[in-house]
Amino acid sequence: MLLLVNPTAGRGRAGRLGPSVADALRQQGFSPVVVMTGSLAEATQCARRAAEGTIVAALGGDGFLGAVAAGARVSGAVVLPLAGGRGNDTVRRLGLPLDPVRAVRAIRELSVRSIDVGLVNGRPFLGVAHAGFDALANEYGNAARFPLGPFVYLYGGIRALRAWRDVTLTVGVDGQERSFTGWFAAVGGLGQYGGGLRICPNAEIDDGLLNVVSLGKSSIAHVVVVYLLSYRGRHLGRPGVSSRRGRVISISADRELNVYADGELVGPLPMTVSVDPSALRVLLPTGRPGDAVSPSR
To answer: Residues with catalytic annotation?
Structure first.
């Protein structure tokens, strides 16, 4: 058993919870090796070096969980995602408790399931890869100096609304392209970001497909409505909202925009997103197909 912790996630929340999570694992019969990681790259390397079938508990934010998944995808380790960040969308989407100690105490009720991993310009991610207004909101949210928790994304969105200017996006789905003036294009693996926004509600975790959702030219009021409805995944069908599914998604724009995935900067557009089906083994709540958890790992 390996416990990887990002001590800076959630403004130090993960670091503070690390000892309690380690104690909870010991109470469940595990002997965790605890690693306080210094970077996302270190987290990836630790998970990559883990023996196949080893349980790797990852305590941090969405970007950290994506980094651990990148390594476990190679090694065949089994990932236990634990909420230690601000938005914790990966944990929310997978149906795990937001309290990491509670999640560990329920580990006997979890089973192993293989899920898809997205690849944006070759970089693995779990949740959403996106560009446009929402990526700008992500930048503002990441730069926030105040401890706003999940509301940091609301803060970022308000700032981005004031700064956004129209852009022409070109979105391709399995080679079929469409250009439009609009606000954003988001490609969902798990399909959730921003502290609970189900922006790609048709994304499935294990169907080998990606869901791309975009918003065309709209008023600010309509943009706000779309995002509010997306908390329940009810924005599809609204004017200007497009949802398509495919195996390879391409996105470009007529001006420079940054790409974000799992809350982390990937780089500038263009981006190509593909899917690696059933590439990652994770522990999920019971009721899903999987193998029993063994305390010997």
So the answer is: 264
Six-digit token pair at 113? 């399931």
Q: How many CB atoms lie within 10 A of CB 165?
A: 6
Beta carbons within 10 angstroms of residue 52's beta carbon: 10
Bridge partners (DSSP) listed for residue 72? none
All domains of the chain in start order, with CATH: 2-116+278-285 (3.40.50.10330), 125-277 (2.60.200.40)
- Do the Cβ atoms of 211 and 235 come closer than 8 Å? no
Where helices occur in the chain by DSSP H, the ranges are 9-27, 40-49, 62-75, 89-94, 100-105, 133-142, 152-163, 220-230
pLDDT along the chain (297 residues), means of 10: 96 94 97 97 98 97 97 98 95 96 96 97 97 83 66 74 87 97 96 93 95 95 94 95 98 95 95 98 75 46
Nearest to 189 by CA among 178, 177, 198, 179: 198
- DSSP string of 117-158? EEEETTEEESSEEEEEHHHHHHHHHHT--S--GGGHHHHHHH
Q: If residue 29 lies in a helix (H) or strand (E), which one and from where to where?
A: none
The pTM (predicted TM-score) of the whole model is 0.90
